Predict the 3D structure of the following.
Amino acid sequence: MEQPKLNKRYMAIEDHDYTRAVHAGMKIDESSGAVAPVIVTSTTFKQKAPGQHQGYDYSRADNPTREQLEVALGTLEHAAHGLAFASGLAAVHAVMGLLKSGDHVVAVDDVYGGTRRLFEKIWQPLGLHFHFLDLRDLHDFEHSLIEFQPKAVWLESPTNPTLRVIDLQGVARLTKKHNTLLVVDNTFATPMLQKPLRLGADIVLHSSTKYLSGHTDVVGGSVMTNDQGLYEKLKFIQFAAGAVPSPFDCYLLLRSLATLAIRMEKHCYNALAVAKYLESHPRVSSVLYPGLASHPQYQLAMTQMLGSSGMVSFYFDGTLEQLTTFFQSTHLFVLAESLGSTKSLMNHPAAMTHASVDSVVREKLGITDKLVRLSIGIEHPEDLKQDLNQAFEKACSGKNL
Ligand code: P1T
């Protein structure tokens, strides 16, 4: 088997991030000496006198297990502050709470379908104005800042599901110039592979459900920032609106974060191997993966990311009937929503994660009926390639061909 070279095309996670991932937010419990995080399930805490407590009065406001997770989340993004939410969309919703009716938002057009739905179905009727744009062209982007004077710019990079890469430093330079808040959804890259705050973002957000959790067993969201004022507002929204994760989910996430660096290393390695395999397959018309030299923003990805992560999309060259057979024929890849798991997953964005996006918009973005999104897990890459291979064969052999 040809080994991808251990260089920037594969991954170059910062040395200390391996250690940070293991130790971030971890503290020995002083009362028992417990090394693993203690799950504090109590919703309420005894007060010595009315209003006099030991830092915790009610778990929606503060909880010791959540606090450990929030320290860990902040540490991994190299941020002063981290906040944990009940889901990625709860985190998005909380950040949107910073804005008010009449404000404009410029958002990347290829944003996760659920984020777009939240913007269009919940926040737009409340008076916010959204402009969904291709943010790859910085000239057009600056023009939109001048035209709409948005209060916030919202982007993902790489985007979901077409894996476009946006120049974060270039965008940040312009949002600073035009005094606009820059929010980056870093779910696909994770802090191991990309640190948007360092590149100039004001707020970084994650669906912790994905790589941060990594085992398809926690729904969560997180928000990180270095800005004290923004943190205080977001902390208030977290407390007042109450979309907090359970202490058990916080514990699971803390446990998962310890292996984030080594998982991401393997996701990157496997994804490059699978992307190269797909690129040479006759039933694949094109592959979208920022780590492939054929990706239009390959150079940019190589400079702003430390690895291309585990998401690979491709266009199936065959009929829809054949594609359905392909989806039904894998043994390792599971046809399921979500991503970032140790297990490999596959998704048909047009019918699943992005079904809520208007079909004309989908088509324009390249989210066609033939687009397949793979979340490459940490299995052996040869097994993954073989699994795809036999599924292609089943789908495209005999009378189906
Ligand atoms: O599912 P939830 O934890 O609420 O996260 C929402 C979310 C936010 N941002 C990005 C980039 C996402 O991909 C998601 C969720 N995405 C999927 C479920 C998916 O399969 O793409």
The radius of gyration is 21 Å. Confidence is low (pLDDT under 50) at residues 1-7. The chain has 14 helices and twelve strands. The pocket of P1T is lined by residues 87-89, 112, 114-115, 156, 160, 185, 187, 207, 209, 219, 221, 337-339, 347, 353 (CB under 6 Å).
